[in-house]
Amino acid sequence: MRKLAVALTAVAVLLAGGCRTGGDDPATGAGQFTRPIVIGLVGARSGAFAVHDTEQIAGMRRAIEEINAVGGIDGRPVELITADHGSDPTRVGAAARDVLNRGADVVVTSADSELGAPAALAARRENKVSVGGSDAPQFALRGLGPLHFNLYQGGPTESVVLAQTAYGQRARKPYLLVEADNPAATALCAEFETAWERLAGEGSVAGRGTFTDLRRSLAGQVDRIRAADRADALVLCADPGAGVDAIRQVRAARVKLPVYTGSGVDGVSWSTVLPGLTNIYHPALVATADDDPRPGVADLLATVPFTGSARYALYGYLAVQTVARGVAQAGTATGPELARALESFQDEPLLVGPTSYSAVCHAPIGRPLTVLRVVGGRAVHFRTVPPADVPPTAC
């Protein structure tokens, strides 16, 4: 816990030291910082997504406890309120209005574009900042407007980092296998190919294949992978369930190529699904095998509950940390002023790494991304990769 405590002391100087660039919050009266800063989570306490938002709440509470323990932000405590959308996109708007009507200064969304977007749009209508994590490119300024900020680097950054990782591992002719009826998967592979050709040159992809229904065998695709000219890596773009099943079939067919895939498989219990599995690479927000190199990450993960991937607990912690830093700089939680403070972040030292936003990009696309490697059925830290030349589609 010592590393996290040291980091917390540094944060305390920023939050309690009055380093404000804006004016007094009009909701409190001139110079009177007595009203809490209210953060409203529009999340799931029931339904399929509840397990993830429960973890996000745990991360938020941990960050709030730390901030309030050192006096809050300019003397103002931070308070969390929640509203349940039941994992139903049609109920998100009403849940967002609930937290806004109860005084939320900032809205935190579910870490899912379908469940998060309606909450962000509701916050925007009330001139409030919203934050949330998603790999969807539209989950930032371009898709949700000037008051929403993505906590995650985004799918395009994943594609670039996967290309850099595969190239660094001396792959030169990857074969791309895509879940064809999945737009996010299609985008992941398309962006990978663009990034790959910048590294290896045009025409350096060994081949491309698609699948739509894993109830059928992938035998045909496996034959094409084997027949592809000098294929030395497999890039798999699919949702987590389809991706795991595809990896199972590929390995069962004795195709031993290294597999590079998206962050959706983060948290899969490979030792249960495919004991002994090796040479799978994927990005993640952090490493969870007690081997993340960033100070404080392991300490935090030892204190918040999570199952599989730690991303949701981390999104919660990161949401509060991001908002707190922004309010400390702006001197207010008022939407436009807070948004300008967040846009001023340049390598802001957050728990998961140096984070930057700007007036034209509301996703931290340049923040280094963790890559995990599955070895013997266990996902371990492989390297932390600074992305190069990420397209602005994630902004």
TrEMBL record:
| Domain Leucine-binding protein, first and last residues per copy | 36-377
Q: Which PROSITE patterns match?
A: PROKAR_LIPOPROTEIN
Transmembrane stretches in the record are none
* InterPro entries on file: BCAA_transport, Leu-bd, Leu_Ile_Val-bd, Peripla_BP_I
**Which keywords describe this protein according to UniProt?**
Amino-acid transport, Signal, Transport
The record, for SUPFAM superfamilies, names: Periplasmic binding protein-like I (SSF53822)
* Family, similarity comment: Belongs to the leucine-binding protein family.
- Name by which UniProt lists this protein: ABC transporter substrate-binding protein
Organism, as annotated: Micromonospora cathayae
